[in-house]
């Protein structure tokens, strides 16, 4: 089973961090799971692509270097997914990430298990830490 709701393997943390380093921390889109991997301060997070305003799919704008909702213009930070411009009431939700015994990161895309959080970035939501 692949897609939203299923666990999605995304590769090893070292490979993902290398990709971030080579692209100025550009988020990595994982289409089948409907999320982006982000290089948050201190580690890696998985942000659900669903706008917290009305649920539209949020793309990353390489031109503006941020997430921007096409429906009503909400903007989110590229590293933390916190709101930069309303009407979104809160940051993009996060999916839980675990690391398998072989070192592969696995993202739980069950929308019933998302992480809701406040507007300020808080590293307690980091499940995969650098170093």
Instruction: Write down how many β-strands occur, each being a DSSP E stretch of 2 or more residues.
Output: 11
* Global mean pLDDT: 96
CATH superfamily: Rieske [2Fe-2S] iron-sulphur domain
Looking at the overall shape, the CATH architecture is 3-layer Sandwich
What letter string, H or E per element, gives the SSE order?
Answer: EHEEEEEEEEEE
Percent of residues in beta strands = 25-35%
Cα end-to-end separation:
32 Å
For the sheet with most strands, the description reads:
7 strands, antiparallel
How many separate domains?
1
CATH topology call:
Rieske Iron-sulfur Protein
How is this structure best described in words?
Strands 1, 2, 3, 4, 9, 10 and 11 form a seven-stranded antiparallel sheet that branches. A four-stranded antiparallel sheet has the order 5-6-7-8, with no helix packed on it. It is globular and about 40 Å long. It has one helix at 13-22; strands at residues 7-12, 28-30, 35-40, 43-48, 60-61, 66-68, 75-76, 83-85, 94-99, 104-108, 128-129. The protein has 131 residues and is mainly beta. The chain has one domain: Rieske [2Fe-2S] iron-sulphur domain (Rieske Iron-sulfur Protein, 3-layer Sandwich), CATH 2.102.10. The chain is built from one helix and eleven strands. Strand 2 (28-30) and strand 3 form a beta hairpin. The model has no long low-confidence stretch (mean pLDDT 96).
Task: Give a short overview.
With 131 residues, this protein is mostly beta strands. 8% of the residues lie in helices and 34% in strands.
């Amino acid at each position: 089973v692949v897609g939203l709701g299923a666990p999605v393997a995304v590769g090893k943390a070292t490979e993902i961090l290398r990709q971030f380093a080579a692209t100025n921390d550009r988020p990595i889109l994982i289409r089948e799971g409907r999320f982006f991997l982000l290089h948050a301060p201190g580690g890696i997070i998985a942000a659900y692509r669903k706008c917290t305003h009305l649920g539209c799919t949020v793309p990353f704008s390489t031109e503006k270097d941020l997430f921007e909702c096409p429906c009503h213009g909400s903007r989110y930070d590229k590293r933390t997914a916190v709101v930069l411009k309303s009407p979104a009431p809160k940051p993009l939700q996060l999916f839980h990430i675990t690391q398998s015994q072989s070192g592969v990161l696995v993202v739980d895309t069950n929308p019933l298990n998302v992480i809701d959080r406040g507007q300020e970035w808080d590293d307690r939501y980091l499940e995969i830490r650098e170093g």
